[in-house]
Amino acid sequence: MSDLHLLSPAGFRAAGVRAGIKVKNANDIGLLVMDAAGPAAAVFTTNPVHAAPVVVGLSHVKSGKLRGVVMNSGCANACTGKQGLADAEEMCAIAAGVAGGVAKEYLPGSTGVIGHLLPMEKVRTGIVAAGRALGNSAEHADEFARAILTTDTKKKAAAERIVVGGHEVTVAGVCKGAGMIGPKMSLKGPAVPLHATMLGYLTTDAKVPAGALRKMLQSAVGMSFNAVLIDDHMSTNDTAAILSSGRSAARVSAGKGLGLLSEALTDVCRSLAYQIAADGEGATKVFKVTVRGARSVADAMAMARAVCASPLVKCAIHGNDPNWGRIVSGAGLAGIPFDQMQTSLLLQGVEVFRGGVPRAFNDGMLSAAMNAPEVTAVLTVGGGKGVGTVYTCDFSKEYVTINADYHT
Amino acid sequence: MSDLHLLSPAGFRAAGVRAGIKVKNANDIGLLVMDAAGPAAAVFTTNPVHAAPVVVGLSHVKSGKLRGVVMNSGCANACTGKQGLADAEEMCAIAAGVAGGVAKEYLPGSTGVIGHLLPMEKVRTGIVAAGRALGNSAEHADEFARAILTTDTKKKAAAERIVVGGHEVTVAGVCKGAGMIGPKMSLKGPAVPLHATMLGYLTTDAKVPAGALRKMLQSAVGMSFNAVLIDDHMSTNDTAAILSSGRSAARVSAGKGLGLLSEALTDVCRSLAYQIAADGEGATKVFKVTVRGARSVADAMAMARAVCASPLVKCAIHGNDPNWGRIVSGAGLAGIPFDQMQTSLLLQGVEVFRGGVPRAFNDGMLSAAMNAPEVTAVLTVGGGKGVGTVYTCDFSKEYVTINADYHT
Description:
The structure is a homodimer.
Chain A: E1 12-17, E2 29-44, H1 52-61, E3 65-73, H2 81-99, E4 106-111, H3 120-133, H4 138-147, E5 156-164, E6 167-176, E7 199-204, H5 210-222, E8 239-244, H6 258-278, E9 286-294, H7 297-309, H8 311-318, H9 324-331, E10 344-347, E11 350-354, E12 357-358, H10 363-370, E13 374-380, E14 386-393, H11 397-404
Parallel strand pairs in A: 3-4, 7-8, 9-13
Antiparallel strand pairs in A: 1-2, 2-3, 2-8, 5-6, 6-7, 9-14, 10-11, 10-13, 11-12
């Protein structure tokens, strides 16, 4: 398992190179390509303020077919008007030129500061260099995974292998997170306005039609990338895409393996989303909030999200402070009615509130238990069947340091 | 003007005393009473998780008549079940006993940590002491204003005097803010779930029926307390109330002075709300966000609120960082569609974005201009008539310090 990587699925090559776009000397151009165009699907930010690569990407992926992904970090190409659109298109054209296929078979991606035009000379040189550096080794996967990062302190990768009819099918992915993280991505993209730059790129060698890929992707994203937030600031650039090479000998269909494949994809996306929470800007721990007993999954997710979005809650988690009233009241911020008298809360496994009243617990012991890599809250808000889990991190002074002086 | 205070309107007395509820040695019981019961109105938190004094207060104010307000700081009496309700009722009964009238003519209020029962022995002793200390001097107003504070670093007060038909009418108020601030209060209280503990108490000697008071209060609150946020965490206890003694000789009616009075009330509430933003936990400056060109006032307010709620935006403001992309994208978090190509942004008076593209500006000069007690953003999102302004503060490391260790 642990040896699997982004390029383990057959038919993929990738590269990550340094083009000097980022201030710090690190990979900032990533290229991921299939040997031939194949079924693909992508979800995009639903922020009405969305970047040029989102507009171009939506248009390119409509065909349900892609050859590859070309991206840069260090500049978001957002709020850049027509020139921004032209630059995103040009990235695709250069990628096609150096890696095969045509421009519209490429999904462009950018992440970084908003409101600056791409330094196209560096970008062009970078993509050409990436085209020459393409390969399918673990090292190539690693170079690509690092090219997509911004304030992330570590690369994020996951992969899973299943067997369908005696043949192996592999699903793998990489992503970035860290800040401006509150994705609410949709296949339709920016239309219903919704929040980070989350970039996630997934590969599989499964033989799956684009329609099935789309369904699987939206479902997986709903339980993973769209269920993680750092600051709940939905980015202009959020994008998650899956490309399938179809090179596995397994025949995946509705009755045969599709469920398994969908589960594997969800697992990979969840692992990636968890890595985003764990590596949030200034994060020292993951905070996992589950809401049970809501009227619907959507209600449960909205309430869990509201708890995770509260800076007050996140500061308490940072301080190992069992200030559970913030969690219970935080659920109320979602705008969904529930009866506090029918509500209970388990914090790090300890029941602190039930039936409208506090439970006796040892403050010091609970605080000590919260001093852990993961803190969990399970809030039951009634007798409904809706359950949902959202992941976030704590809120530290380091977050302020990082974000009070990122641009200048 | 500057000599006016909470007790300048005729017919009011108040007191603030130390009952030992707060850890720190400071006033924590406040009592505000009129010489006789009079027209009153109040708005309450719309969080489904709401405190006992909110439940009791809603019930008491239904009559449109109050004698006074009795409140404590240091404990929110929230998530405290039936005992909490009984305690809030008892506070009113004791107040009536020591200051006149009957229990249900008192509006109870509490602010502090959630999930603890009130230390009723201290509360009882405190209310009795407050009853003995009642008076109508500026010092009495000051003692009351300090009794309602929690993490606030200074008291918040405002007052205005108008003349109607040759006679003076005074409107005055005090409030608290600091943390858990994101009020969305309504006359109906917790029903439509909505966010601080914001407590605001207003006095007037105007002769106004309760119905008119209610309308004026909801309108004023919409443009003031409900338009300020620190962390956008709506509290369990938010309450703003106005009591009128009717002692002014002016005859206020629909055609005569009611508009003036309503404006004065709005001014007082706005001044108080501004003071909340300026004294937000860890705040070093006020950030004022105006959205213009929206389809409605509600849309404009929602978009301005979304910008103010973003920790990313607030950190940039803290760092004097003209990272305007966060502001523009922040408006998109409200879930309201707008065309980024028709959008422009003035940051501290400098146009940084128009028609989908960045404007040239001097980064260093703008950053220097942002190093001020107030930073303004004016975002035009289209050609609509909707305009709205929301106030917040910057987000500093001090906020984390305060909130990572408040409970324990």
